[in-house]
Amino acid sequence: MRKSEIHAAESVSCLNKALNELKDIWEEIGIPEDQRLQRTDAVHMHIKKLLDMMIAEEECLKKRLLSSIETCRKEVASLCNELQVQEYQEEDGLTMLQLEKDLRTQVKMMLKEKSARQSELKSLIQHDQDLCDILCDDLFPIHAERVPSQQQLQNYRQHINTRNQEKERRHAEFVEMKRQITVLMEDLEQHPDTSFEKDAVCEDEDAFCLSVENLSSLKVLLHQLDSRKAESEALCVSIRGRIAELWEMLQIPEEERERESLMQNTHTSTKSRLNALQAALQRLEELKKKSIERVIHTIRSEIVKFWEKCYYSPEQRQAFTPYHSDDLDEEVLREHELELERLKQDYAEHSELYDAISTWSSNWTLYQELEKKATDPSRFNNRGGNLLKEEKQRVDLQKSLPKLEKSLKAQIDQWEATHCKEFHGNGQPFLQYVEDQWNRHHMEKEREKQERQMKKIKQTEEDLLYGTIIRTPTKRRLAGTPTPGKARKLTSRMCSSTPNTTLRSICSSPSLRPPLSSSKLCARTPARGRTPRGLERNKENISHLSGALHTMAASPQINYSITSVASSYSEFAKDSESTAA
Hints:
The chain has about 575 residues and is mostly helical. Among the domains are: about 30-110; about 150-285, no CATH class. The chain is built from 19 helices and 2 strands. A two-stranded antiparallel sheet has the order 1-2. The protein is elongated and about 210 Å long. It starts with a helix and ends with a helix.
């Protein structure tokens, strides 16, 4: 049983006890029955009225609770909708008081959450407004009067963080560009003209609007200033080059050049340096007009140098008629300057081709010199190993020249494809010139070979006629060279193995016989005369030799072994190796 029921039973018991006590009192007093009835009715009325009043109060309380519950339910539903959260689920089995209390507590919590979100939203909107004023951007798309959801607040916070980072980046970019613009303006001695330039350079950094358009305009301004500086510096370089040319033309002393250079370097800004260089150039131009004849001769010498570098033919040189003019005025000077500038530009554009031609020419000249040395018999008297070095260098050039000519042909083909005309060097197609040089070289070698053969034939005739002994150079014996005795034995074997009888008679010439005494040698000297019999025998030998030599000239396929001086280092080495074997 509940305590409330126990209390109700006790109340009924108290009421019955009170009525019994009243009844006893009424008995003692002797109140009549009708009065007792009246008094009992009065007690009943009082008790009934009190209980009715209490019941009414409790009913009123119940109504208030129900009204409060309904109101709280509506508020909770409304707040759930505003806060964009799930609907509140009431617990089952709760009394009115518990339900009303839970609902009131939920309403208070949701109102607190709503207030917190609205406060944060207001703060974020204010911060966003400040950033938008600086960055000149639009506000974050959110309704200021509505309660934002947690996801909306999270997105807003991320947006603010991104805006802050963008602000820092733009501010750093603006500060760097402002510094560069200030430096360039000072270097160019330029002052801010427009209101935008004044705002960017002169105003406070925090007051400048960091919009995309402003930063783009700053980049354009920075690029313009960079271009002006680059143009000024390029103009300075061009003027310096022109000043150097005028110094050479006018033959300005070195002391004056150094003094002028020091004066130009004292200027700190590009604008002041450019003004100083322009003033110096103007002075030199005026001085050039006063000494125009000397300047033209100086330019002509430069033109000749570039003609030689570019391999101009005499016809091409004659085509520039002002070079041969005697009327030296400003117009002629101008034409000479234009021609020199054109030659410099032509050489600069095709410097690789001209350098390659120069390399080929120098290598070709060296190769021809080494070829001439290789046919000189006196080279064997040279000491110090130069012979081997020259031979190695000649072989290297013989291998490298065709490769260089192949590379030259590719460059010339490219040049001809670009200019749609044939490339000439010294007045003729250069490739044809190279081919003619090789043909001339081969013809010269063939001519020298024939001269050596004729010389050998003539020497052999003189040996048979006058008895002269043919000896190889014995200035310095090479490694592996046999002794004279061995050489005589080797020569005898070679002569004996030769099938030709005429050559056998040649090999058994006086050069292989023991040396004669001085009296006999003097008796055989052509100056003292010969005996008819000896002269007749020599004439007979000469006739046999002439027939044999004619046979050798007509039949080059036959191998003849005649000991003679080698015509080249390679032949000399082969002869030495064969002799040693």
